[in-house]
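Field log, afternoon session.

UNIT: design team B
ACTIVITY: writing a sequence onto a fixed backbone
BACKBONE:
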């Protein structure tokens, strides 16, 4: 009998394998579970993409319903994130059981689970998506950081319309002279913007020309940010256009702006122009009357009037129709920055700064008062107690027709008509010296601040990961390869030993084979 016939006889003598009665049922169930798992993975991915796409949606002034806010606005580590994580882990558990037994596939699944854990439940500062949203209102405190190296750049990860922007030594590193920090209007999402020069910085001025209004950095809705030589759209992160001079004042709805006009020969300012943005029309040109002119300008909330400092006077012009202007003496007072008009257009905030940045010390106090535009007298309850002479003073705008919001040194104060001393709205973190709040957010309620998030890892963090993580990963791969090679060499040696020990038996079988044939 030949070897082939012998093996065939042995195989035919063995009993037929018994197939389980539910073999096909289990196969169909396995296929069904795989389809459900794939559908669940697609649903999780689509949900994550939807949350990412929400980054560009405009902020509505109405706060979200508490239930919805608690579900989707809690952000990283919140209820919605943990729910998605639970679904994803359950799907991975199903796939772990049904995957064909290759260890590589199971390792890839484990890596995917770890990645999902980092994405959905990462600690603040490394969130990729799911940042807090729907928290409309000004936070009762700002996040503190000495370097802000965790925060993403606004042009890479735009925060959407912002509630405020702030700067100072605490937010600038060694090479970021123009760095400012942005806080989103609907959550504790922080971003940074790095430009050549700090847009919030004030240049020293003389006693004759103390610090007046600085150019507004934010548009009233907090969407446009003027910095450097450009204006940035914080919803898209793109530059909205080059500006020879940033707007010096906005109307309350953001449709009209006041722009400075310069002499092209010597870059000396010669006056102002009021423009209507929707129609692209210039409404009024206001030339300076004499060389002493210059200073702050403020547009009324409805854009129908503009107040301009002309030498020792404040002149109120109608923006349309060429009507007559009304002139009032300043008497040492200055317009309270570009946000001096009250929401009803009846009052103006006036300030008298006792000192200027870089000037010699003085004992002259800093003062704030509210005047009636029609009579140019102090409005009822519009006189307040003097402030220290060496504090920075910046009018932020009006919270209500009776409440004026002002930065006084390291705090944001609320001056209320009829109350001599202001009340504290916000205390600035150490090292933060300048702040500007979007005027449309001033009336928002004060809310408790939540753990901050800083967006996806920025370029610096990726460089750190690349510099430190890649060599470590390469070292781990080398160690794994060496261990695998060592096990392979050890297995080859054991097989060689077993082959040598069994070689004599094989030879004996070969020698006995002819005898069996003969028999």
């Amino acid at each position: 009998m030949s070897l082939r016939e012998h093996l065939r006889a042995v195989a035919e003598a063995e009993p037929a394998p018994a197939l389980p009665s539910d073999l096909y049922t289990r196969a169909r169930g396995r296929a069904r579970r795989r389809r459900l798992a794939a559908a669940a993975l697609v649903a999780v991915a689509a949900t994550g993409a939807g949350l990412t796409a929400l980054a560009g949606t405009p902020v509505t002034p109405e706060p979200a319903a508490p239930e919805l806010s608690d579900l989707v606005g809690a952000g990283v580590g919140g209820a919605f994130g943990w729910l998605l994580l639970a679904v994803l882990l359950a799907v991975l558990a199903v796939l772990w059981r049904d995957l064909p037994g290759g260890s590589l596939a199971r390792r890839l699944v484990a890596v995917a689970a770890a990645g999902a854990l980092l994405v959905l439940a990462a600690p603040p500062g490394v969130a990729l998506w799911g940042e807090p949203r729907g928290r409309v209102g000004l936070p009762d405190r700002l996040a503190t950081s000495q370097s802000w190296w965790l925060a993403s750049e606004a042009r890479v990860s735009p925060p959407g319309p912002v509630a405020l922007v702030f700067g100072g030594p605490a937010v600038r590193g060694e090479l970021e002279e123009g760095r400012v920090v942005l806080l989103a209007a609907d959550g504790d999402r922080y971003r940074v913007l790095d430009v050549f020069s700090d847009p919030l910085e004030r240049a020293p001025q003389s006693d004759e020309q103390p610090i007046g209004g600085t150019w507004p950095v934010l548009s009233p809705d907090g969407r446009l940010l003027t910095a450097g030589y450009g204006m940035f759209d914080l919803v898209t992160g793109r530059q909205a256009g080059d500006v020879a001079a940033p707007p010096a004042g906005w109307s309350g709805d953001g449709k009209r702006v006041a722009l400075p006009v310069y002499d092209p020969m010597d870059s000396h300012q010669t006056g102002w122009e009021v423009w209507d943005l929707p129609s692209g029309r210039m409404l009024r040109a206001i030339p300076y009357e004499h060389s002493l002119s210059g200073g702050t300008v403020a547009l009324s909330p409805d854009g129908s009037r503009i107040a301009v400092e002309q030498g020792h006077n404040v002149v109120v012009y109608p923006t349309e129709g060429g009507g007559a202007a009304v002139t009032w003496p300043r008497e040492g007072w200055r317009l309270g920055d570009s946000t001096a008009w009250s929401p009803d257009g009846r009052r103006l905030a006036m300030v008298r700064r006792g000192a200027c940045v870089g000037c010699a010390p003085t004992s002259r106090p800093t003062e704030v008062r509210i005047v009636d535009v029609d009579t140019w007298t102090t409005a009822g309850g519009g006189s307040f107690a003097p402030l220290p002479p060496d504090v920075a003073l910046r009018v932020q705008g009006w919270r209500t027709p009776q409440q004026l919001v002002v930065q006084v040194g390291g705090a944001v104060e609320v001056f209320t008509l009829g109350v001599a001393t202001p009340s504290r709205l916000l205390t600035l973190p150490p090292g933060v010296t300048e702040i500007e709040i979007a005027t449309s957010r001033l009336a928002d309620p004060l809310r408790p601040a939540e753990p901050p998030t800083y967006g996806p890892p920025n370029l610096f963090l990726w460089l750190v990961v690349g510099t430190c993580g890649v060599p470590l990963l390469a070292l781990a791969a080398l160690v794994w390869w060496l261990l695998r090679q060592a096990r392979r060499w050890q297995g080859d040696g054991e097989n060689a030993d077993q082959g040598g020990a069994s070689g004599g038996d094989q030879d004996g079988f070969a020698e006995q084979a002819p005898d069996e044939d003969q028999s």
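LOG NOTE: Residues 52-79, 121-128, 203-213, 506-514 have pLDDT under 50 and may be disordered.
NEXT ACTIVITY: expression trials, pending approval
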